[in-house]
Amino acid sequence: MSSPKDYILEISPAVDVVDDHNTLEFSIRHRNETVFDRYRRPVGVVAAVVMMTMILEVVGWPQAKRLQFGSWTNVVTLMVSALVWVASVLRQEPRDSVLVMKDIGIQLESIKPWRYQSSVKSFVPVGRIIDLVLHEGFHEYGQVIYYLVILTKPDPKQVSHDNIIKVVFPEFLPRKDVLLKVRSLSRDLLFGQRMCFRRVPGQGLRPVQNH
After folding, report:
1. What would the pLDDT profile of 171-209 be if each residue is shown by its tens digit?
2. Measured between alpha carbons, how far is 51 from 78 in angstroms, rounded to an integer?
3. One Pfam family name from the record (predicted)?
4. Which pTM does this prediction carry?
5. CB 159 within 8 A of CB 187
6. Is 161:145 a contact under the CB 8 Å cutoff?
């Protein structure tokens, strides 16, 4: 069954052709926020106020003591408020972004939904980029998807050459039409009318004109 993949592609600056730009940033995020994400800031403030009131009641603040709660109610309220507040602080908007810099390279970044999850960031210098290629593969329960990769030359400083393919938008894996637009604009900015490479059966990588 196909995933809805209801995502938004943001391009900065907003362009359909590269023209004289030196950088382009592509970001993918969810179109619709969850209820918690939409209201997490005001909910976090309310949770913090309730939590502080409970703490002040414990330390003996007179105004807080006017709130007559049972001991178990206090404990449960304090724990729930603390959990909600922590969740509101640690939550962030997940997104995948690609920063393409003319004559410099491509920077990839994936921001996770929670701040304690490490964001993944990597940079590929233009000298190592062979091409941006659209692949077809299987995902999860046999779903056929398209995904965009940066095909790179092996890094001479690394002993292992396993990581020569960098997946673009690895957390979201957006639809083909989005990937085609990102690929087209990125290649125009990186290569222009210069030569890039294609893998020809039996001949390896061969230079071809970018178009």
Report:
1. 898 999 999 999 999 998 988 765 556 666 666 666 665
2. 5
3. PIG-H
4. 0.74
5. no
6. no
